[in-house]
Amino acid sequence: MFRHRGRARTLVHNLKLASLLSFVAGIVNVAGFFSVQRLTTNVTGHFAYFADEVVKQHFFTAGLYLLYIICFLLGAFFSNLLIELTSKVNQRYANAIPVLAELVLLTVVAVLPATIMQRYADSVVCTLLFTMGLQNALVTKISDSVVRTTHLTGLFTDLGIELSQLFFYRRPEQLSRLNASVKLRFAIISFFFLGGVIGGLGYTRYNNRILFLAIGCLFVGIIYSDVRYRYLLLKKKHIK
């Protein structure tokens, strides 16, 4: 799931990756919003708020929204930086390092008391946006830009286009490609929505500790990816 790249990736690989990470993003999105009343998985809305505050000449508040945007950017930057540096040492663990970094950062936020969350709300927002930048860059790189899991605007646009194409593209190879792409986008949207609902329901009872569910999903994903990799290696050795 986290190992295959480029032509080695199949629809099944992308569906597993998309389902897991979009579910995580859905939880973070709702838990972050409920905790600090800010968007914590994408930066589109923050650009609008930034422009609004600049027009009102509230430059300090505008600067905070700009900081949110930069934190997401830095997350994406460091995600790819970690992948490139690790791949020079051990290619096998290159993709796991950003996931481990995401695990650590989400754990930090999950254990914070509610009073601290409110007092340092801007720091929490920056941390979660950095984390989602890490995740989005990782999944984009692994899937060759086929999968994105932290925001839905582009997904709904692409899905609308592809659904309309189903009325016109009739060749078997065209339909196969379109059906695979539509299935993938439905999976991302569905699991993001599911993560958001579960995250919202869980937050009402567990507060920001619901993030431990997202952390658990990431941990299971890493373990599954590593165990399956070892299994396939053993299988190849037995075949030889």
UniProtKB/TrEMBL annotation:
Top-level division of the source organism's lineage: Bacteria
Coiled coil: none
Segments crossing the lipid bilayer: 20-39, 59-83, 95-114, 120-139, 184-204, 210-227
Keywords: Membrane, Transmembrane, Transmembrane helix
Pfam families assigned to the protein according to its UniProt record, in alphabetical order: DUF1275
Presence of the UniProt keyword Membrane in the record: yes
PANTHER family: SLR0142 PROTEIN (PTHR37314), UPF0700 TRANSMEMBRANE PROTEIN YOAK (PTHR37314:SF4)
Name this polypeptide is given: Membrane protein
Source organism (scientific name): Niabella soli DSM 19437
